[in-house]
Design brief:
The protein is an alpha+beta fold. It folds into three domains: about 10-160 and about 510-534, no CATH class; about 160-340, no CATH class; about 345-500, Trna Endonuclease, Chain: A, domain 1 (3-Layer(aba) Sandwich). About 50% of the residues lie in helices and about 15% in strands. The protein has helices spanning about 10-20, 30-55, 60-80, 95-125, 150-155, 160-165, 170-180, 195-215, 230-250, 255-260, 270-280, 285-290, 320-325, 330-340, 345-360, 410-435, 440-445, 480-485, 490-500; strands at about 130-135, 135-140, 185, 190-195, 265, 310, 315-320, 370-375, 385-390, 395-400, 455-460, 475, 510-520, 520-530. The chain has a five-stranded mixed sheet, sandwiched between helices. A hairpin with an 8-residue loop joins strand 8 and strand 9. The longest helix is centred in the N-terminal third of the chain and has 29 residues, at about 95-125. The protein is globular, with a radius of gyration of 26 Å. The relative contact order is 0.11.
Length: about 525
């Protein structure tokens, strides 16, 4: 009597299988241009459907962000596919069959794959361990990475969902939508709406609030092809058009007509002319910004959230409104500039950002403290970005400052973590030097003499929360440090930092668990936090 023996798989063998699994999906037929259009239209319609659900259940917002990740992964797959790359015979009609195929490609393939990728990236970086049991892969936090639960909580609490929902204040937007509804109609299956000052103004305000909700950069910043203010004005104007188009879709009752009109189709010339007429900027400046926002398939690891405009070869531009409506515009701009790595003006401005952090921290410090900024120690030792000495408490806080925008993906998180880790290593060098002869260090750095034993604490201060693997040097975000320094003595603050008492407490409704994902015949379990009903 024979036994049915199930094959055992190696973790990397499974990785190769899932990397190729999408290639035979029936959605990948036709030209790349056709599939991109159909993909974007399907994504746009799914956003409308889930936005309606979000009005009744705010937690449905998570599905919209899931689809953003899925769209980005699906576009990468299309770029890599061996398909015709012309726009010959491009059709803007979308059959129900193709809609279902593209939905499957997004929801059943691209999204689960993107989640699994985060597990594999963490495993490759030795943040996760992996236990393979036949066709099940269970990722767990490594012993050295147990603090990642706190990191996950910080990231979860700073996703910006609340700010996003506030932009859609029902009272504020219902008036704007009601006014818009009177100027929307469908003619021969084509969505039409009027754009005038009265219609545009409330949506410009909403888009402006969206920008302001997450802004951190100085308004005077310059880039090679435009200023930050010019980019802000242009981005807000395009976003307002996206709000108008998205709102218009809710007036369409026929599902097929809705999904065929779910994205904006416009020529580059018309878009530039329209935006320039709204904000009064020079046409060339607006054109530079629009071109900067066009998705570049040739840049490795490009994210469609950074460049949310898809260009067709002959048929103009495609814009899925939610890619603007759901964006963190400044963060996406800096990520894009970093990927392009060719902006001279930006590189100069970045050097000033840590000075701004110093100024913000210094503004809440007691005038009785001794403060040093950008103090050189000589030799191969790193500089001290900010040193604070309180003779009354007999404590010194040494800060290494790290300014960067919040991360939005596993790759970005680990890139930020590498920078943080380097900062921690530098602080270890400073602490070793300082504690060899504390009195000499205090005299050299602060110009003060003391006979008291002084407690010296070093930390890394990050503009945004980020993960870290260093056990010796605490990492604290700028806002938390400022809040502590504004309310407590330096001695109390140093004790809190030293003992990691600034970490968020796990809420009572927070469960440490695993997210289960099924894909390509395998089941993956990835560490995750479940908070409340999310």
């Amino acid at each position: 009597m024979s036994k049915n023996i199930m094959k055992s798989y190696d973790i990397r063998e499974i990785e190769r299988i899932i990397d190729d699994y999408h290639k035979n999906h029936p959605a990948l037929t036709g030209t790349k241009e056709q599939i991109r259009y159909e993909l974007l239209a399907t994504y746009g319609d799914l956003c409308v459907i889930n936005f309606k659900a979000m009005m009744l259940n705010p937690f449905a917002m998570g599905k919209i962000t899931d689809y953003m990740d899925a769209l980005n992964q699906a576009l990468m797959w299309i770029n890599q596919a061996s398909l015709d790359d012309t726009d010959e015979n491009l059709s803007f009609e979308l059959s129900e069959r193709r809609y279902k195929l593209l939905y499957s490609f997004l929801d059943k393939y691209a999204y689960p794959y993107s989640v699994i990728c985060s597990g594999y990236i963490s495993y490759s970086r030795k943040r996760f361990t992996a236990d393979v049991k036949r066709k099940k892969v269970i990722f767990n936090l490594s012993k050295e990475n147990d603090t990642a639960w706190n990191d996950m909580l910080r990231e979860r609490m700073n996703t910006g969902d609340n700010n996003f929902l506030e932009l859609f204040n029902p009272v504020k937007i219902s008036v704007a939508l009601q006014n818009l509804r009177e100027h929307v109609h469908v003619d021969n299956g084509q969505l039409w709406y009027e754009i005038n000052h009265d219609i545009l103004e409330p949506f410009l305000e909403i888009a402006c609030n969206q920008w302001d909700a997450t802004k951190t950069l100085p308004e005077y910043w310059q880039f090679d092809l435009f200023s930050l203010e010019e980019y802000r004005q242009t981005w807000i104007d395009i976003a307002a058009l996206c709000y108008i188009h998205f709102g218009s879709l809710f007036t369409i009752k026929d599902p097929k007509v809705r999904w065929e009109n779910s994205i904006i189709r416009i020529t580059k010339e018309d878009l530039v002319s329209l935006i320039a007429s709204i904000n009064g900027l020079k046409r060339k400046v607006v054109e530079n910004i629009v071109e900067y926002l066009i998705y570049d398939y040739k840049i490795k690891n490009m994210d469609v959230m950074y460049q949310p405009i898809i260009a067709l070869r002959k048929q103009g531009l495609l814009i899925a409104p939610m890619l603007f409506i759901g964006a963190n515009p400044e963060r996406n701009l800096l990520s894009l500039v970093s990927l392009k790595n060719k902006d001279y003006e930006h590189s100069k401005e970045v050097n000033n950002l840590e000075n701004l952090m110093v100024e913000k921290i210094q503004s809440v410090l007691s005038k009785n403290y001794f403060i040093v900024k950008h103090k050189r120690l000589g030799g191969r030792l790193p500089d001290i970005d900010l040193g604070i000495y309180d003779k009354e408490s007999n404590v010194i806080l040494l800060c290494e400052l790290k300014w960067f925008m919040a991360a939005d993906s596993s790759k970005e998180i680990f890139a930020r973590e590498d920078d943080i880790t380097h900062g921690c290593e530098q602080q270890e060098m400073v602490i070793e030097y300082a504690t060899k002869d504390k009195l000499d260090f205090i005299k050299k750095v602060f110009g003060e003499s003391t006979e008291q034993d002084v407690d010296i604490i070093a930390c890394v201060v990050a503009k945004n929360n980020i993960r870290t693997q260093n056990d010796n040097i605490p990492v604290i975000d700028e806002l938390t440090l400022i809040n502590l320094l504004s309310k407590k003595s330096l001695g109390e603050v140093c004790s809190i930092i030293k003992n990691h008492k600034y970490e968020l407490d796990m809420p009572d409704n927070c469960l440490k668990t695993h997210k289960k994902v099924r894909y390509a015949g395998f089941t993956f379990e990835i560490p995750a936090l479940c908070i409340g009903d999310k």
